[in-house]
Amino acid sequence: MRRIHAFLTLLLAASLSLANGPVFSNGSIVEVSIEDYKFQPADLKIKAGTTVKWMNKEKRTSHSVLFTGPNGFESARFFPDESYSRKFDKAGIYPYSCGPHPEMKGNIEVVE
Ligand SMILES: [Cu+2]
Questions:
Q1: On the CB side of 2, how many CA atoms lie within 13 Å of its CA?
Q2: How many Å lie between the centroid of ligand 1 and the Cα of residue 44?
Q3: What is the model's pLDDT at position 3?
Q4: Cα(66) to centroid of ligand 1, in Å?
Q5: Fewer CB atoms inside 10 Å of the end CB: C or N, the chain?
Q6: What is the whole-number distance in angstroms between the Cα of residue 91 and the centre of ligand 1?
Q7: What's the whole-number mean pLDDT along residues 85-108?
Q8: Lowest-confidence region among 6-10, 67-71, 91-95
């Protein structure tokens, strides 16, 4: 019985860490792909100092990354096989959408 409990606890911990997503470390570059009008992964958790690179994998549609929080701004439009990168140095929550397609949504959580 105790063994089963330990196993379930492990399983719960594993599924919780999956739900939060991996935390990418300082200095690395993490790619978010854009395909079929979706940011993938849409929710990302990174450590401060990490660069996020949005890669346009559409056939012909251009997109942008529009940060909708305080001090928000919009990237230039980028076309298929082009990308936009931003380095996140400060912890915080950075919600974003796409300028021309507001229904496309994503979120970056930056932790210390
Ligand atoms: Cu778009």
A1: 0
A2: 18
A3: 62
A4: 10
A5: N
A6: 26
A7: 97
A8: 6-10
Q: Supply the pLDDT for residue 99.
A: 98
Residue 105, in any domain of the structure:
yes
The CA distance from 7 to 29, in Å, is 34
Rounded to whole angstroms, the Cα distance separating 87 from 78 reads 17
Q: How far, in Å, from the CA of 11 to the mean position of ligand 1?
A: 37
Give the integer Cα–Cα distance in Å for 51 and 3: 42
41 falls within a domain: yes
- pLDDT tier for residue 24 given thresholds of 50, 70 and 90: confident
Domain of 84? 23-111
Radius of gyration of the chain (CA): 17
100: in domain: yes
Report pTM: 0.81
**CATH code, domain with 44:** 2.60.40.420
What is the number of domains present in the chain? 1
Structural domain contains residue 13 = no
- 72: CA distance to ligand 1 center in Å? 17
Give distance in angstroms: CA of 38 to centre of ligand 1: 8
